Amino acid sequence: MATPAGAGAGPKDSNSSGICIGADYPGGNIIVEDIANDTVSLRQDRRDTEGWWFYWNFRVRGAAGKTLTFSFTDKNPIGVRGPAVSTDGGASWSWLGKRAVTGASFRYRFLQNDKDVRFCLAMPYQASDLKRFLDRHATNPHLSAGTICGTRKGRPVECVHAGKLDGDPRYRILLTCRHHACEMMASYCLEGVLEAILAETDDGAWFRRNVEVMAIPFMDKDGVEDGDQGKNRRPHDHNRDYLGRSIYRSVRALRERVPKWSGGRLRLALDLHCPYIRGPHNEVIYQVGSSNAAIWAEQRKFGKVLQTVRTGPLIYRTQDDLPFGKAWNTAKNYTAGKNFSRWAGELEGVLIAATIEIPYANAAGSTVTPATARAFGHDLARAIREYLSSR
């Protein structure tokens, strides 16, 4: 019988082998079906997800010196660079690589001193990661961290302000992340934007003179910490909750606070996401084109700036942007409700309200890691400066 091993649940244990597999930590998600010989059969816990999705995150203990095959039974949820692996309790991660992968399985050789090894779809970013970032900058007068609300489960939904915090700024910018809980690589990009604003550089100084940024790092905070998929959550997910009365507290609080905070100075509202795990258009960074022709025209201008100023290792090309009406970006995809970008595009003064997709592992041939995603955040901040300065 399959035993769930999600956040807060117990592990799956094999008495004969001593191998223990669990996910009882923030972001954990797995269901172990069987441990037989050197093969572990397991699947991602989809919980309240409508349809199939791919997020998983588990840890292995008691496997030192063994070589195990992990075989997924619910389709193939392994990304293009294989699983991410951590041997230090989740403090650091690396890609195992596609050579370790065969179909929906991967193989791993545990060293003799491997007491606790974690595997994940990609490289997790939890509340503890945000705390480390905020702690590093706790004395910086250009960064302020508070909350926008509490979740249904009592967790704080962090609200970070950065840049010009004294007096009225010339511009305001809204950044959101993790409307879909599993899209963790976008969080490193958001952290990179905030780093750039605080840095002792020309870009940082310009932001601190001219711009106040409001950032919501975890729109689905409970989902992030519980290890949920978040995407296509029933009855609808956080990014389809901007119509009528919002059912999620974070969305409701954001819709109430932003119009009061913006004061007519809000110019950009960017929602950072990750796309599907594989496929040509899911392995590039791209803007999702607005159905609003005026906003799409501004997105195209911004895209040209971003392509020009990019210096980091992750490639962005305007040709990869997805115009409205192409592929999945059609009116049919938005019939279930209004998303963040459509809502933000209706706010006073907004020039661009858009989703930016940052791949989980591969961006036009470049490897996505926490460091490279942060570097793209620096590029994004530089592009925002150039775009606003040229107006």
- Give the number of helices: 8
- The level 1 CATH classification of the largest domain is Alpha Beta
Query: Could you spell the SSE succession in H and E letters?
Result: EEEEEEEEEEEEHEEEHHEHHEEHHEEEH
Low-confidence stretches: 1-15
- The name of the CATH architecture of the largest domain is 3-Layer(aba) Sandwich
Overall number of strands = 21
The overall number of domains is: 2
Q: What characteristic shape results from the CA principal axes?
A: globular
Q: How much helix is in the residues? A: 10-25%
Q: Which sheet architecture does the biggest sheet show?
A: 7 strands, mixed
Distance between the termini: 62 Å
Structural class: alpha+beta
CATH level 4 superfamily of the largest domain: Zn peptidases
Outline the structure in words.
The protein is of the alpha+beta class and 391 residues long. It has 2 domains: 118 residues, Immunoglobulin-like, CATH 2.60.40; 263 residues, Zn peptidases (Aminopeptidase, 3-Layer(aba) Sandwich), CATH 3.40.630. Helices cover 24% and strands 25% of the residues. The chain contains 8 helices and 21 strands. It has a 7-stranded mixed beta sheet with strand order 13-14-16-15-17-19-18, sandwiched between helices. Strand 2 and strand 3 form a beta hairpin. The longest helix is centred in the last third of the chain and has 20 residues. The chain is globular. The termini are far apart. 49% of the residues are buried.
